Amino acid sequence: MYVCRVLMTRREDSYMFKIITLLGSPRRNGNSEQLAAAFAKGASASGHAVQTIRVHTLKIGGCIDCRRCWMNGSHCFLHDDMTGIYGALDAADVFVFAVPLYFYSWPSQIKPVWDRLLPYFSPDAKADIRGKRAVLLAVAGDESPSCFDGLRKSFELACWYCKLEIAGEIFANGVYAVGDISSGGWLSEAEALGRSL
Ligand SMILES: Cc1cc2nc3c(=O)[nH]c(=O)nc-3n(C[C@H](O)[C@H](O)[C@H](O)COP(=O)(O)O)c2cc1C
Prior knowledge:
This protein is α/β, with parallel strands linked by helices.
């Protein structure tokens, strides 16, 4: 598991958020990762703690709808790298999804993470993510911003269902080859969003 932890000291005048960033791209230092790094730079400058997880390097199976989590009020019964993500989500105040658009939707690295949130919605759940904040940082090669319509809707509905408060969304279109993200002002926008939390 790739984990980069930047711990900042608590500022006297504000609350220090624990932020978990899930990198959804298999490309190292690709566009979504650069966007996430800019966001983390801004968030760190504001005194927040950012933990970054490269989901591509993990083994996370899909939900098998056994509902044992709902019967026992426990975390998922599948034992894989989602266990570490549950721990990070439980501890975090803010979830950041940094993803490339794949076929107008989530990359396959991230979709199982959403599906495996099911245990939190058991009446006897041991942990609660309701009220936490969520941020979407998305990139796509398509020139039209409408390419994000499906992903945007999925994110917004999922946050509504999970009772996550959306703290920001960036949809960077026209970003295809590695490095394209550096033009168009997206990185400054992401840094400003991180700083504004
Ligand atoms: C499997 C696959 C599917 C993709 N699907 C789309 C798509 O539906 N729409 C689009 O605009 N770009 C699509 N792309 C392009 C990526 O979103 C784009 O190259 C992005 O910048 C990659 O981000 P990354 O560098 O963080 O991996 C796809 C790329 C791959 C590899």
